[in-house]
Amino acid sequence: MLIRNATLAEGDTRDVRVSGERIAAVGDGLDADDERVLDATGKRLLPGMIDVHVHFRQPGFGHKETWETGTKSAAAGGVTTVVDQPNTEPPTVDGAAVDEKLGYAEQAHIDFGINGGVTADWEPATLFDRPLFALGEVFLADSTGEMGIDTSLYAEALEQAREHDVTVTVHAEDETLFNESARERDDADAWSAYRRPQAEQEAVRRACELATERDIQIHVAHTSTPEGIDIAAEHGMTCEVTPHHLFLSREYLSELGTHGVMNPPLRRDTLRSRVYERVADGTVDMIATDHAPHTAEEKDVGVWDAPSGVPGVETVLPLLLVEAERGRLSYERVRDLTAATPADVFDLPDRGRVREGNYADLVLVDPDAVTEIRADALHTNCPWTPFEGWDGLFPEWTMVRGEQVFERDADEPFGDPRGQNVRTTEE
């Protein structure tokens, strides 16, 4: 394929040639060969998003999401690589569990990585014998799957990660700092009052200090407070922010109810706005969804019984592209947050940018095609969204390694599963 006159994230208009799985050339006035020519005048051509934090629920909870539905949803939203977390059933804490999950991942429509987890029963010898993306999400407090660990086991995980030269992704909350008095309430906002900001801030600080002492790099998942972001940056560690912590606040809980329960919880809007500032100014390294689907029936219970998490893999890039189109973030910043920096941090040198030699993981977007986000138009197995009615800028098509895996207006928008483990591909 030769894509003509596409506007890249930097604002330059270029021709882009795709040959096989790679970008063969980026330039001006490229000569057409015996190939399909696509006129992209007025449209944006961006690298596909690398979402380093999803929960696709298989094995164990396929009624919430499967590898097939989750990766279709991702492709429809412009995500070309996802990284699945270990809190499935069984948890991905040994080689056999990795192998089982890889079997489910054969249904993936986009590329993927698999993280190994840490529990008291983990088996580092067999776990690190598999092609892991990273170690983590290492839970320093219980969340879905009840995989919270203590400081000594976290320290052991850091030592093992250093020995095997992998990054550790950390869910940082300190359960000893939760506000127990909030448990006397039954409104949706009680969850935010319970898992208060200090619990994140102190857990991030301790996690970073222990990693620094052992000279190991960690990545802090779903930071929800400006202080947590700053602490990670001060220690030279990377962090991510989710779309729900970027756009939503406790003020939305009156509308969302228990559908707005997640870990860490939504914060007050004053904190959310300061998180946004750090996303815009470069302090935050990347956006990741923490796509954590549960059925509406599972969420429609009391606040202390509702499972934590919201879906987001299909709506994250469309939300961010609207921010870029309206001038609140630059297209370059969106590219860095969603593709270039995740590729750099997690050692994916052939992904994350539209440049010659990289894999052709591409997304084509018409900036004039802003639409409302509607749950009934999404492709996840979890047909609800906290962003119902928000504006989104969805891709016309998504390409993974040179092949279109999603085309919005096609009679059959998805092709056959073709996802590969990026750790195997990159080797």
Automatic annotation (TrEMBL):
This is Dihydroorotase. InterPro entries: Amidohydro-rel (IPR006680), DHOase (IPR004722), DHOase/Allantoinase_Hydrolase (IPR050138), Dihydroorotase_CS (IPR002195), Metal-dep_hydrolase_composite (IPR011059), Metal_Hydrolase (IPR032466). Binds 2 Zn(2+) ions per subunit. Pathway: Pyrimidine metabolism; UMP biosynthesis via de novo pathway; (S)-dihydroorotate from bicarbonate: step 3/3. Zn(2+) 1 binds at H53, H55, E137, D290. Belongs to the metallo-dependent hydrolases superfamily. DHOase family. Class I DHOase subfamily. The gene is pyrC. It is an enzyme of class 3 (hydrolase). Zn(2+) 2 binds at E137, H171, H222.
